[in-house]
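Example 9 (inverse folding). The structure is encoded as follows.
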């Protein structure tokens, strides 16, 4: 929806299909229709591009000092290591497993992308409170 609000006329979905199968398309359509109905739009086209006026021409206005760290829940974690692999290959190499297979976060490397939250099969990772990272 964010892409559509920024003017996109078509959306490519790849990883979600790999993870959930083609049924995710029905879920995406249902979610999109629900959103449109809740916001009072009668079509996708009505909403397309509405956020363009909010786009800044410079990145200087972006707040870059806040990182929302992942929070690991030991009672749910099964030590599978998926969060470690995803962060290592698709994130910032900010997690390693302890000897008893408990995820350990390196707060200096984590950028708060939440890829680890998305891949955890046990929903054992949530968002922690925002913390301020001082710029170098
Ligand atoms: S939020 Fe991103 S960078 Fe931080 S630990 Fe998770 S995957 Fe790695
Ligand atoms: S992906 Fe989830 S269950 Fe697996 S090690 Fe990480 S936190 Fe634990």
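The amino acid assigned to each position is listed next.
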């Amino acid at each position: 929806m964010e892409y559509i609000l920024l003017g996109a006329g078509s959306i490519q979905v790849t990883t979600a299909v790999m993870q959930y199968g083609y049924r995710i398309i029905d879920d995406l359509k249902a979610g999109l229709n629900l959103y449109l109905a809740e916001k009072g739009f009668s079509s996708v086209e009505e909403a397309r591009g509405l956020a363009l006026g909010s786009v800044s021409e410079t990145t200087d206005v972006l707040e870059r000092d806040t990182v929302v760290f992942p929070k690991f829940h030991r009672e749910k974690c099964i030590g599978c290591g998926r969060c470690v692999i995803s962060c290592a290959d698709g994130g910032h190499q900010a997690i390693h497993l302890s000897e008893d297979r408990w995820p350990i976060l390196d707060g200096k490397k984590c950028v708060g992308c939440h890829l680890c939250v998305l891949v955890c099969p046990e929903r054992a990772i949530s968002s922690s409170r925002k913390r301020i990272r001082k710029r170098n």
